[in-house]
Design goal:
heterodimer; A: mainly alpha; 0% strand; B: mainly alpha; 21 helices; globular
């Protein structure tokens, strides 16, 4: 049984090809470069305009850096664990069985969009990685049955969950706020009627747009190279106590079980789902669903192939936050935000600032660390509830996430298509969802 | 004597290869042992223990970030061409296996003595560099022994300049100040007794490690071929289509511009604010040197990916140790163990019991400072009742805490990540060093009052 488990896990790892990612930072400004430039420009700006003495700037840089260590690690673990959950062999095996439900392209698009969005609301790894894998499985199934298939369109449907993920349970900002002094629980942010309804409307809009694409008969149908039977890799049976412990499923079940038991006890003691509990839940599920206990750490290490890009931006965003929250700098920033905004435009500004900011700092958590306090202060001034201020930012972060190559390319490593073939679909998804979010928010103002 | 030590090393290695699983599995097993111990020896139910574990799981998030950053920045620095050149010159000094082991062991002891953060990260870099230089020279080395030599320096960290408990009691307003006042480092780190123990360790540890060198004819494990991280080679260069992006990647302006901020921070903290050298300062130093010695973002970022990958075990496993610490501190088991052992001591045996107690608890709570916070009050109370010297018992605690690092994979994670070995590959040799070091430390503790 352990040999079979080993083979399954090796097969899953073989699916992932991270060579594509290298090309990403040859097209766009690398996130690490961005954060270095942004930090330097902040110091230069504050020094040149003599807003505050240099020693205060330097000290704030250092204290901001240190204070943020805890949050940076939490965000990093969220990235790693979400991807790890998404590539769980047991989960992908289940996803593959779902592919039989979709007999034609239309039902596949509807099914994929709902699957991706629904699961992404709980965890983007489950929704998006699962969605892309499901898209590939559906395409393979259709190809075997001799049906035409538009793989890029299916993959785009599988990726659509990225849009709603930033306003779901695995949102960097929502989880971060559960630990802030404001103690915004997920009940008051993710699970509000407004958030659920607006995301349902967005999902319906995305589905509709993608269905329009599926009517086109002129799209080229990509032929998938079917994966033939791979040579069976010989796995040696464990020969000693150490190897037996490393491959024992009992250790996985025991340990994952302890983690899940803690979560149950936590909720039974009226504990809320916060960032730490959510991460522990991901670890427990990730461990328990893997037959070899070591596989979990190996898969987390594999996930680092995509998540490494974000580590330094997460770390140094704290340093920038430290500088920007020096008293007179903070007041200056608040003043700027108040000047350029009004009550009616503030929520739209939040969406757009998350959108634009993501091209420089492609992680909503890092962006929120830098600007979150100012956004909330401005919202408070305009008597806009904290939850709305957060949600509008998250909607902006979500709609741009599907355009973020540093997030897309590692996920696309699961399928043999190029980003170019997806562009028109993901741009449409982003545009439609942006318009939908803006219209809904405007109607509430 | 030499063959005895060598045979002990070989035997323990064979045993460890069979019984010691991966460091990740070790921390899972330690968690289960800690949970069972608390359930048996304290009046806490299993639900309470699980809650203590979960609540403690995220307690060392900040420390895990610091350790990850220390490893990442140190690893990036080690791949800077200029740094490799300089380190290569030192690493190429040995001409035979014995000299390789002596240099590695002695460097490790020095680095750990200076600072535990430096020791944890830099020893791996040095071990790999010495290995590579030895390979170039055609010196046949037993790689696991070299890596073990790089790790054995951990036995001295708590007697050195960054000794957590000694620095804590020397700090104004520390949590035991009402009971013992401020004890300056001249009476702890720089006391004759502590210096004697440190000196003996500086002699005995390299000596014992050298004795474990396989004799001619014995099987040796050669070092792996490390991937060429020559950043300047055209094979590794990936050009962008955008001249602007190529400029950004290849110009030294951005690394220099960004380095100015941490440089100013270091000057401000160390010279103006006179803050001590701590892990944050170490990280910033590594960051600055890494950026300046790499010179370009292309070079720096290309090393960053593999550096982050090596830090993943730390990011993950440190949280599990946080859970273990949560169990032991919240349940009071650590205090109970301390109470049980120290009550049975007299003026002669008490320091030895403190030493033993610290070593035992350290297997589960590998943070020296954290352990002192939990057990310090018990040890101080008992020492005062017996009319004993606090510095002597503090040295006993520190020595015991550091000693069992030789069996605890937690501190070996950064080294093993860089060296590419598993914990069971080196623990056999570390076990032998532990046996002889403990004898030396016990002698030192018995002589302590008379110096």
């Amino acid at each position: 049984m352990n040999i079979i488990a080993d083979l399954q896990e090796q097969k899953t790892r073989k699916l992932i090809n991270f060579k594509k990612i290298k090309s990403a930072y040859m097209i766009f400004l690398h996130p690490v470069t961005s954060i270095f430039i942004f930090s330097s420009l902040t110091v230069i700006f504050l020094t040149v305009f003599r807003i505050t003495p240099i020693n205060v700037i330097i000290e704030s840089w250092g204290s901001g850096l240190k204070t943020n260590f805890k949050f940076a690690m939490q965000f990093m673990l969220l990235l790693l664990l979400s991807y790890t959950i998404g590539i769980t062999p047991t989960y992908l095996k289940f996803v593959r069985t779902l592919s039989r439900l979709y007999n034609n392209q239309r039902t596949a698009i509807i099914g994929l969009t709902i699957f991706s969005s629904f699961l992404s609301f709980f965890n983007w790894g489950l929704g998006v990685v699962g969605g892309v894998f499901l898209a590939k499985s559906i395409a393979e199934s259709h190809q075997r049955d001799g049906k035409s298939t538009n793989l890029p369109l299916l993959v785009a449907a599988g990726l659509s969950g990225l849009v709603v993920s930033e306003s779901g349970f695995s949102s960097n900002v929502m989880l971060f706020m559960t630990q802030s002094p404001l103690n915004i629980t997920l009940n008051n942010s993710v699970l509000t009627n407004f958030n659920i309804v607006v995301n349902v409307i967005v999902v319906v809009s995305i589905t509709f747009v993608l269905l329009l694409f599926s009517c086109k008969k002129t799209d080229k149908c990509n032929k998938l190279k079917t994966v033939n039977n791979e040579p069976i890799l010989k796995c040696n049976k464990p020969t000693c106590i150490a190897e037996k412990m490393e491959t024992s499923q009992i250790v996985s079940i025991l340990f994952g079980g302890i983690g899940l038991y803690y979560c149950i006890l936590h909720f039974c003691n009226n504990g809320m789902l916060d960032f730490k509990t959510y991460l522990l839940l991901l670890i427990s599920i990730g461990v328990i669903l893997r037959k070899r206990p070591l596989s979990f750490q190996e898969d987390v290490t594999l996930s680092s192939n995509y998540a490494w890009i974000f580590f330094f931006p997460l770390i140094f965003s704290g340093a920038i936050q430290g500088m920007l929250h020096i008293e007179n700098v903070n007041s200056f920033l608040n003043q700027v935000l108040l000047t350029i905004n009004s009550k009616s435009s503030f929520l739209l500004f939040n969406i757009l600032s998350a959108y634009v900011g993501n091209f420089f700092i492609p992680n909503s958590g890092a962006q929120w660390i830098i600007f979150g306090k100012n956004i909330l202060a401005t919202g408070e001034y305009f008597n806009i509830s904290t939850e709305f201020s957060i949600l509008s930012f998250c909607y902006g972060a979500g709609v741009v996430k599907i355009l973020n190559v540093f997030i897309l390319l590692p996920i696309l490593s699961l399928v043999p298509i190029k980003l170019k073939s997806l562009l028109k679909y993901i741009i449409c998804i982003s545009a439609v969802s942006t318009i939908t979010y803006i219209l809904v928010l405007l109607s509430f103002i | 004597m030499k063959s005895l030590v060598r045979n002990m090393g070989n035997s323990l290695t064979v045993i460890m290869q069979k019984v010691m699983p991966d460091a990740y599995i070790c921390c899972l097993i330690l968690t289960i042992i800690a949970m069972i111990s608390v359930i048996i020896f304290t009046p806490h139910s299993s639900s309470e223990v699980v809650l203590m574990w979960g609540d403690g799981f995220w307690k060392i998030l900040t420390f895990s970030t610091q350790s990850s950053l220390a490893l990442i920045t140190g690893s990036i620095l080690s791949n800077a061409p200029l740094f490799k050149k300089g380190l290569g010159k030192i690493a190429s000094l040995p001409n035979n296996h014995t000299q390789v082991i002596l240099l590695t062991s002695f460097s490790s002891l020095c680095l750990w003595y200076i600072h535990w953060g430096v020791g944890a990260v830099a020893t791996g870099i040095i071990a790999v560099e010495i290995t590579q230089q030895s390979k170039k020279k055609g010196i046949k080395i037993h790689y696991p022994l070299v890596v073990a030599a790089a790790y054995t320096g951990t036995v001295i960290w708590h007697n050195g300049f960054s000794g957590a408990s000694q620095l804590l009691v020397a700090t104004e307003g520390h949590f035991l100040v009402d009971k013992i006042g401020i004890i300056p480092v001249s009476e702890t780190i720089f006391s004759p007794g502590n210096l004697l123990i440190s000196s003996m360790l500086f002699i005995i540890v390299p000596l014992i490690t050298v004795m474990m060198i396989p004799k001619d004819g014995d099987t040796i494990i050669e070092p792996p071929t490390f991937k060429n991280k020559d950043i300047t080679s055209t094979r590794n260069k990936v050009d962008s289509n955008s001249p602007f992006l190529n400029f950004i990647f290849d110009t030294p302006v951005i690394p220099i511009m960004f380095s100015i901020i941490p440089i100013f921070y270091l000057i401000y903290s160390l010279l103006f604010c006179q803050k001590g050298f701590d892990l944050n300062i170490f990280i910033i130093l590594m960051l600055v040197f890494g950026l300046l010695l790499h010179g370009t973002l292309r070079s720096y970022i290309q090393c960053l990916q593999s550096a982050v990958k090596t830090a993943i075990p730390i990011m993950l496993q440190f949280q599990f140790y946080g859970g273990i610490m949560g169990i032991l501190s919240s349940s009071g088991l650590a205090v109970s163990i301390a109470n049980f052992l120290v009550r049975s001591g007299n003026t002669t045996t008490f320091p030895l019991l403190v030493f033993l107690n610290a070593g035992l608890v350290n297997l589960f709570v590998p943070s020296g400072g954290g352990q002192w916070i939990v057990q310090g009050p018990v040890i101080i109370d008992a020492a005062q009742r017996l009319g004993m010297s606090i510095p002597q018992n503090l040295t006993a605690f520190a020595s015991g805490d550091a000693l069992t690092n030789l069996l605890q994979p937690f501190w070996a994670l950064p080294l093993l990540a860089i060296a590419g070995l598993k914990v069971r590959d080196i623990m056999g040799y570390c076990g032998v060093v532990l046996i002889f070091s403990s004898l030396v430390i016990c002698i030192g503790l018995l002589i302590f009052p008379y110096i």
